[in-house]
């Protein structure tokens, strides 16, 4: 990959900071082009990768190459109120540019806790240093925050009399993610197994798609160079063990088949390929040890049914039924069910057996909050709204009918689906994983032989959890 | 010749964002420059004036810099200058003052001055030149951090006249003890290359870079590869051969997650020596698919595909009937990479998902059917950005097979009614394409046709129109479904408003009018309102349809055909239409036998036999794009030479084929015995020697890891200790120390008769100092006891120990390098360890070879 320059702008495209690595593109005008892209191109047609030809035209994807060679490609990501953008005039590796930009954001976050316009302006000196250290001449170098932190710091570092700001060997050795000589008073390690349930339910109630995106997150506060070994109830391991020791696997309870596992770079991948052992030397602090995906048919943990009775020109009524479909000893916390409503409703009134209901006019939805939702329960909520005698659709329709037929799909009869967004559900179920994954052991071995305490937590939360409305 | 810089300097004239960015409390005067926020007023003289004031104020502050004692205050002053620079205020007038501050022991201040310098050097070349000395001096600082930073600053000045100052520190940096400096130096070479290619060629850094591929530090190696790729862009990137490739692959687990990419990107250009090696490389790279780094995963996929391409059997090659073909292998690769790719798509951020969907699209074209069972992943989510939704809808059509089609069709039908018009259109087109490709299994075509017919009546202009167009294509492919379609056509013609849809309906009426009783009357209505038709396409379609229908149902059509021909020939809006109408008219009038005209006009040539419209056949483009997989080309579906300027293109060139395997070592610029020794020393099984490794299983899914990749416990398939490949059996211990006394004792203990003397190996150039030789040898674990320079020769007392579990033998070496003519003489005495004299001889031979390669730069 080659990036000619990297710059950060606010949401209007006004540059905050930039670094021109190669000097082979006119950076100032490139930033201006980026700003005008943000301004001129409609949101719907904006793409995270776009090409500007040599005459300065923004090209549609299919038109690239039709107007001759030259120009630049912009690759950008958004983070809070910022855009981070890379520019290139070569045939660069896009995935790499995006990965770099993502990692740069997490690096900045690591440094400044929050990354936004303010923190950029407050820390521009460090940002210049980081931009220089993470990329040289447009080619990515090291992006590991734990390592960079050791020598890029604004704390008192005087040259040569302080060994602290030497570029650490770790920058260049094999265990590049951990420095030597880390000391903690209390050796502890926290392990969070977080599973997010993605769900898509069709209007007729069939589950179109369900999958689990899991992550094993770690917070490591261990001294020295500890060797860790993580044991999970991985089906393949159990099967292997079962073969070897004559069906002992059945004794150890159920196991889980993890479909696609991705590891932090500290995990010895070959070892895993060999015997499914997850062994590693952890970085210090917080990191995602592994993520996995399970594409299985999961019963929707929280089921929602909506019956809507619109009475044109007078009122609209909702009957929402929700049911928790997990074991009764588990509890879902902070359940939020958001039901979309037409944009022009008024005078809301609600009745619910549990929880609180609020109408959010700016989001055109009703949010039903249930603080604690025990397993195996069912609740009901009724909502009632007034509708204006002439709906907004009709009013718009009348207005735009003079303007011909270009008005889009919403105008026709029976097509006023613009508010038919899906129902969204948010929840968190502690001490529970949908997949049934369990940590069986976490062995910590360090040369000095200290005792370290592993803490394990499980949590299941909603991912992209959508139920389409009938 | 100096390369002129066509672009404005790197400072950024940014519309003022006053006040912000300046550290709190650092501004004694008013709260920043007056508000000139982005308005046109920023050129107003008042503001410039005021800024001048600000800058002058800064200059005052900087003048006190030398006397200021407080480190924090000093930093604040610097920070303010940099803040102004960031805001785009031109602070280049402070150049002189800033340069005075470069002599500091505070690293933070130093970095800021460097930054300032790099930003303004191009506009103030003379002033910048003044500080070269300091930079050169800093590049020799005792602190590696400072050395690296100074070097980077020095190379980033982009002043062609500076090259004479930079090349010396650069050369020095490449031998630096600290990897940070070396890797910065390597990158500096690239900067120099871009600055002045002629001087660069003179400095002959390229060979050094190739040598440095053996650097013990992976980040240095990474940069070497990147730099070489760019310098050699004209010939497709770094020169590649088997030895280099295998050396890098064997070390791949040492690389950082970004460094690994540099190696992975070389693999597509490599041609494996044989099938086995290809499989071994895939096995070796397989774990990379488990990293969370999307870029690395994609690069691995590309590498896999290229290996499959290289080792798979071509059609027509019947040498080995059991060998898998290219297509088989590619299919297997796609099966392997499916899960990781899908995970990345489903869990990545939007931007990445968008790009990966494009990649998936290309892979699906490559191996249709592979992703079919993951079709649920490509369902559209309400919350996704439009461009992702669109990509998914396009992909869904390609995932249809008899099993998945019902679900996919149902899903697409839902999306037809989406608020987003473009999405609705795409959904209809996707439905049409499933039917057209007949990928939905039995009955799917008809059921889709029925759905499309329903959509005709949906009264949503864009949906009806798209449905009409889709139906027109469908009927051409599957003429039998006209019975399903025919009934609503006349009705649809009345309310479809978009020209494309209208002409599709008219086309269908003309083509299949014999089975649609109302067809003539439907057309008549259109003909009668001919004046209201604005679109030429509709008119042309109408003309063609009417003439065709005339031959099928002459009595009903004759009248209206006459009317239409009259109107069309009098229509002056379209030349094409006018000519065509005349042509029909004359043909009909002049031909004595109506059947002649009929055979010309109403021939049934419209049915399709393939699943694709001719304009959709882009197999050639797809093949070309596959070579550049994982680049912008894939995203744009456009070849690089069509949108990238010539000078920026890196051609895709495979390495020269240099098989059979024998005598390649001679052709290798980086001598490979050393390479093998290094890797052997690392305790790894190498893939260099195919004789030692059991044939790889053809399932390269990763169940069997024959290579013991990156593992600390060598578990299986360690190569049998054989001397089948003599180059591999000598490995040297990395940390050996001998005291002078021990050395003398050992030397004395071995009689001179046992010593092996190799005299006067001719050398091309002579080393400049003993240090150079020592460090070169040290990299290969040959240690120096003592050395010295005499008038005519260099003398070295060297030693090394063989890596052996039971304590390998020592080798004591006396080396003499004569200065003129340059030659190397060696006296080697083995001491202890293995007594088998045959083996000992062999090992000494290898040792000589190793020393030669370590000192390769003097021999080649």
From TrEMBL, chain A:
Domain of life: Eukaryota
Subcellular location(s) of the protein: Endomembrane system
Chain ranges of the MHD domain: 186-468
Cellular component annotations (GO), alphabetically ordered: clathrin adaptor complex; endomembrane system
CDD domains linked: AP-1_Mu1_Cterm (cd09250), AP1_Mu_N (cd14835)
Principal location: membrane
UniProt biased composition (Gly residues): 400-415
Keyword terms: Membrane, Protein transport, Transport
Protein name (record): MHD domain-containing protein
Source organism (scientific name): Discostella pseudostelligera
Organism placement in taxonomy: Eukaryota, Sar, Stramenopiles, Ochrophyta, Bacillariophyta
UniProtKB/TrEMBL annotation, chain B:
Cross-referenced InterPro entries: AP_beta, ARM-like, ARM-type_fold, B-adaptin_app_sub_C, Clathrin/coatomer_adapt-like_N, TBP_dom_sf
Gene3D superfamilies linked: Leucine-rich Repeat Variant (1.25.10.10), TATA-Binding Protein (3.30.310.10)
GO CC terms in record: endomembrane system
Signal peptide (UniProt feature, chain positions): none
Places the protein is found: Endomembrane system
Ranges annotated as biased composition (Pro residues): 1-16
Lipid metabolism is among the record's keywords: no
Keywords annotated in UniProt: Membrane, Protein transport, Transport
Region described as Disordered: spans on this chain: 1-47
GO biological process: protein transport
Segments forming domain Beta-adaptin appendage C-terminal subdomain: 730-856
Principal location listed in the UniProt entry: membrane
Keyword Nuclease among record annotations: no
PANTHER family to which the protein is assigned, alphabetical: ADAPTOR COMPLEX SUBUNIT BETA FAMILY MEMBER
Family membership: Belongs to the adaptor complexes large subunit family.
Protein name stated in the entry: Beta-adaptin appendage C-terminal subdomain domain-containing protein
């Amino acid at each position: 990959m080659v990036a000619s320059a990297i710059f950060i702008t606010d949401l209007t495209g006004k540059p905050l900071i930039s670094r021109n690595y190669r000097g082979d593109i006119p950076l100032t005008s490139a930033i201006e082009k980026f700003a005008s892209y943000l301004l001129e191109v409609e949101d719907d047609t904006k793409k995270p990768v776009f090409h500007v030809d040599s005459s300065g035209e923004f090209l549609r994807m299919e038109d690239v190459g039709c107007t001759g060679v030259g120009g630049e490609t912009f690759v950008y990501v958004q983070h809070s109120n910022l855009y981070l953008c890379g520019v290139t005039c070569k045939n660069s590796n896009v995935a790499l540019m995006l990965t770099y930009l993502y990692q740069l954001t997490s690096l900045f976050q690591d440094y400044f806790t929050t990354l936004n316009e303010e923190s950029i302006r407050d820390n521009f000196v460090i940002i210049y240093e980081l931009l220089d250290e993470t990329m040289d001449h447009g080619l990515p170098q090291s992006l590991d925050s734990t390592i960079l932190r050791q020598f890029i710091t604004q704390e008192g570092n005087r040259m040569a009399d302080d060994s602290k700001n030497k570029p650490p060997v770790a920058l260049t050795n094999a265990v590049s993610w951990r420095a030597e000589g880390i000391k903690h008073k209390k050796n502890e390690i926290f392990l969070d197994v977080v599973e997010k349930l993605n769900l898509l339910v069709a209007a007729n109630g069939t589950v179109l798609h369900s999958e689990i995106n899991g992550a094993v997150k770690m917070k490591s506060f261990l001294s020295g160079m500890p060797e860790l070994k993580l044991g999970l109830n991985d089906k393949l391991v159990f099967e292997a063990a079962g073969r070897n020791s004559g069906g002992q696997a059945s004794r150890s309870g159920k196991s889980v088949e993890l479909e696609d596992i991705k590891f932090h770079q500290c995990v010895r991948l070959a070892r895993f390929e060999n015997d499914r052992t997850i062994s590693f030397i952890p970085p210090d602090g917080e990191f995602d040890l592994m993520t996995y995906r399970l594409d299985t048919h999961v019963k929707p943990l929280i089921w929602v049914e909506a019956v809507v009775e619109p009475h044109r020109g007078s009122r609209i009524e909702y009957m929402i039924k929700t049911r928790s479909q997990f074991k009764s000893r588990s509890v879902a916390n902070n359940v939020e069910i958001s039901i979309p409503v037409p944009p022009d409703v008024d005078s809301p009134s609600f009745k619910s057996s549990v929880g609180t209901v609020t109408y959010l006019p700016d989001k055109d939805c009703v949010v039903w909050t249930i603080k604690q939702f025990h397993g195996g329960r069912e609740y009901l909520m009724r909502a009632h709204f007034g509708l204006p005698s002439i709906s907004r659709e009709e009013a718009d329709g009348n207005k735009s009918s003079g303007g011909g037929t270009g008005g889009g799909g919403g105008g026709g009869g029976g097509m006023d689906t613009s508010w038919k967004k899906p129902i969204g559900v948010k929840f968190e179920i502690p001490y529970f994983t949908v997949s049934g994954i369990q940590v069986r052991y976490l062995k910590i071995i360090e040369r000095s032989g200290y005792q370290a305490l592993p803490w394990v937590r499980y949590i299941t939360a909603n991912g992209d959890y959508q139920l389409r409305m009938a | 010749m100096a390369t002129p810089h066509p672009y404005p300097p790197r400072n950024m004239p940014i519309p003022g964002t006053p006040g912000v960015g300046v550290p709190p409390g650092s501004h004694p005067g008013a709260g920043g420059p007056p508000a000139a926020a982005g308005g046109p007023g920023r050129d107003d003289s008042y503001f410039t004036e005021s800024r001048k004031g600000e800058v002058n104020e800064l200059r005052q502050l900087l003048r006190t810099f030398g006397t200021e004692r407080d480190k924090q205050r000093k930093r604040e002053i610097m920070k303010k200058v940099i803040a102004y620079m960031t805001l785009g205020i031109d602070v280049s007038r402070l150049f002189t003052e800033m340069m005075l501050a470069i002599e500091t022991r505070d690293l933070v201040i130093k970095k800021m001055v460097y930054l300032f310098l790099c930003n303004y050097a191009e506009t103030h070349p003379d002033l910048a030149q003044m500080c070269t000395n300091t930079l050169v001096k800093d590049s020799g600082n005792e602190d590696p951090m400072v050395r690296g930073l100074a070097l980077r600053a020095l190379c980033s000045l982009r002043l062609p006249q500076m090259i004479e100052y930079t090349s010396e520190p650069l050369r020095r940096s490449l031998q630096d003890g600290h990897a940070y400096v070396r890797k910065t130096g390597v990158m500096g070479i690239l900067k120099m290359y871009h600055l002045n290619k002629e001087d660069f060629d003179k400095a002959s850094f390229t060979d050094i870079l190739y040598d440095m591929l053996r650097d013990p530090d992976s980040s240095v190696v990474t940069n070497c590869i990147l730099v070489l790729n760019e310098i050699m862009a004209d010939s497709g990137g770094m020169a590649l051969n088997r030895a280099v490739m295998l050396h890098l692959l064997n070390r791949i687990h040492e690389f950082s997650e970004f460094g690994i990419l540099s190696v992975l990107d070389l693999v597509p250009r490599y041609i494996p020596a044989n099938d086995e090696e290809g499989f071994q490389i895939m096995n070796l790279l397989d774990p990379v698919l488990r990293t969370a780094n999307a870029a690395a995963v994609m690069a691995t996929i590309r590498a896999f595909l290229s290996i499959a391409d290289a080792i798979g059997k071509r059609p027509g090659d019947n040498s080995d009937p059991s060998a898998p073909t290219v297509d088989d292998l590619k299919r297997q690769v796609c099966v392997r990479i499916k899960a990781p790719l899908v995970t990345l798509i489903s869990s990545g951020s939007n931007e990445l998902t968008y790009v990966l969907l494009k990649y998936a699209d290309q892979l699906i074209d490559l191996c249709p059917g592979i992703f079919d069972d993951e079709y649920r992943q490509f369902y559209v989510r309400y919350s996704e950005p439009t461009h992702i939704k669109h990509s998914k809808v396009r992909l869904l059509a390609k995932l249809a097979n008899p099993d998945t089609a019902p679900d996919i069709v149902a899903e697409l039908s839902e999306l037809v009614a989406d608020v987003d018009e473009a999405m609705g259109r795409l959904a209809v087109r996707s439905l049409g394409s499933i039917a057209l490709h007949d990928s939905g299994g039995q009955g799917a075509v008809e059921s889709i046709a029925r759905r499309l017919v329903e959509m005709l009546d949906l009264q949503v202009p864009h949906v009806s129109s798209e449905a009409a167009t889709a139906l027109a294509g469908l009927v051409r492919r599957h003429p039998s479904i006209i019975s399903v379609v025919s009934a609503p056509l006349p009705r649809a013609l009345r309310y479809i408003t978009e020209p494309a849809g209208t002409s599709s309906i008219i086309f269908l009426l003309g083509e299949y009018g014999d089975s649609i009783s109302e067809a003539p009357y439907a057309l008549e209505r259109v003909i009668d309102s001919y004046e209201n038709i604005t679109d030429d396409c509709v008119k042309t379609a109408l003309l063609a349809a009417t003439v065709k229908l005339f031959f099928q149902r002459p009595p009903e059509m004759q009248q209206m055909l006459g009317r239409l021909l009259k109107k069309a020939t009098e229509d002056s809006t379209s030349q094409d239409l006018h000519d065509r109408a005349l042509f029909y008219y004359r043909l009909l009038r002049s031909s004595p036998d109506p059947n002649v005209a009929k055979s010309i006009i109403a021939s049934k040539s419209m049915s399709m036999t393939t699943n694709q419209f001719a304009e959709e056949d882009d197999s050639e483009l797809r093949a070309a794009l596959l070579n550049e997989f994982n680049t912008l080309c894939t995203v744009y579906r456009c070849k690089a030479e069509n949108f990238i300027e010539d000078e920026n293109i890196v051609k895709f060139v495979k390495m020269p084929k240099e098989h059979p395997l024998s005598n390649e070592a001679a052709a290798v610029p980086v001598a490979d015995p050393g390479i093998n020794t290094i890797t052997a020393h690392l305790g790894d099984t190498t893939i260099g020697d195919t004789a030692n490794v059991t044939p790889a299983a053809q399932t390269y899914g990763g169940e069997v890891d024959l290579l013991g990749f990156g593992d600390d416990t060598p578990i299986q398939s360690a190569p049998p200790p054989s001397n089948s490949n003599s180059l591999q059996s000598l490995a040297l211990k990395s940390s050996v120390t001998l005291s002078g006394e021990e050395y003398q004792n050992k030397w004395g203990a071995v009689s001179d008769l046992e010593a092996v003397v190799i005299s006067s190996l001719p050398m091309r150039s002579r080393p400049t100092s003993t240090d150079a030789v020592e460090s070169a040898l040290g990299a290969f674990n040959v240690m120096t006891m003592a050395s010295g320079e005499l008038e005519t020769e260099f003398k070295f007392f060297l030693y090394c120990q063989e890596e052996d579990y039971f304590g390998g033998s020592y080798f004591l070496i006396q080396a003499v390098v004569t200065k003129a003519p340059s030659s190397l003489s060696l006296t080697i005495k083995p001491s202890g360890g293995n007594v088998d004299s045959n083996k000992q001889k062999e090992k000494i031979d290898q040792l000589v070879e190793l020393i030669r390669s370590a000192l390769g730069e003097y021999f080649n």
